[in-house]
Design goal:
globular; mainly alpha; about 55% helix
Length: about 120
């Protein structure tokens, strides 16, 4: 019987902690900060900007996490700026390693009786 994946609770971090982690060279710290920002940071636009910035990181681990975190912003914050995010996600669609993460970021998950409003276009 295969092992079950371990659930890891993502703890909230202060903005200062997030900024310090995102500026570090610790790949796991950067990834944890992206997940924390996506799930807990009240300013979804700030979190979205950090994910978009990390899509240019040299590490594929960080880039894949940024793609996943963009989907989490949509699910947890129920907002995402389509005008900014969609072209960036689509850049990775044909990438053999990151394409599946891009697809997941675009997929609407119907995990509740009311589907999330996955992506809202910018109103500004």
């Amino acid at each position: 019987m295969p092992d079950k994946p371990n659930y890891v609770e993502i703890k909230p971090k202060s903005r200062v902690e997030l900024e310090e982690s995102l500026a570090s060279t610790d790949l796991n710290g950067i990834c944890n900060a992206l997940y924390s920002a996506a799930q807990h940071e009240p300013d979804w636009r700030w979190s979205q900007a950090q994910c978009l910035r990390m899509l240019r990181h040299e590490s594929s681990l960080v880039r894949s996490t940024a793609l996943i975190a963009l989907g989490e912003i949509a699910l947890f914050r129920r907002n995402l700026d389509l005008n900014l995010v969609l072209p960036e996600i689509k850049r990775f669609a044909s990438d053999p390693a990151l394409g599946p993460y891009a697809e997941d970021a675009l997929r609407v998950e119907e995990t509740t009786s009311e589907p999330p409003k996955f992506i809202k276009p910018s109103t500004t």
